[in-house]
Amino acid sequence: MRVVPQTLAAVAVAVLLAGCGSSVKLDDKQAPVETRTPSAGGPNANAGGTPQSQVASIDLTKNAAAAQGNLARVVYFDFDSFVVKDEFRPTVEAHAKLLQADRKKKISIEGHTDERGGREYNLALGQKRAEAVAKSLALLGAQDTQLEAVSFGKERPAVQGSDEAAWAKNRRAELVNH
Asked: Distance between CA 90 and CA 112 in Å, rounded?
C-alpha cells in the first residue's frame, strides 16, 4: 500500500487539532486536584509518618571557581562592528550563569579595537563593544550592578602587527573578574 505525503500531512494535522480540544481549562479555579499521601509501608515512608522528598538539591556555586578557570573570556568582533556574534553566545551565557549563581560577583567588560581609526572613534567603538556584551549578559540574567563596561580603544592591543590576523585579535571585549 502506498501512502501519499499529502494524506500523511492531513492525518497529522487532524491528530494535532483533535488533541487541542481539551475540556479542562488551565485557568479554571474548579479544576480537579488530587492529593496523595504515602502509605505506611510504602517506599517513601519514614518513622515520623511525614513524606520525605527524594529530590536532591544542587549547589550551583559549588564548582563555580573551577568553572571560571575554564571559561573563554574574550568575544571577538567584525571590523567596525559592535554586534555580538552567535559563535560567542556560549561564552556570554556561561558568564551570565556564573553571575546569576553568585550575585556578589562583579566583572568588567573591556572593549578594544584594532589600530585603524582615530583615538576618539576607537574609544567610542570599544565602549559600544563592551556595552553590547554587558547588555547580552543582562538579558541573560546578570544584574546591571554586577557589570562595568569600559573602553581601551586601540591603547591595549592583544597582538602587535598591521595585518588582518593581528587586527582580528585586537577587535575584542574581554570579560575580567573582580
From this structure: 20
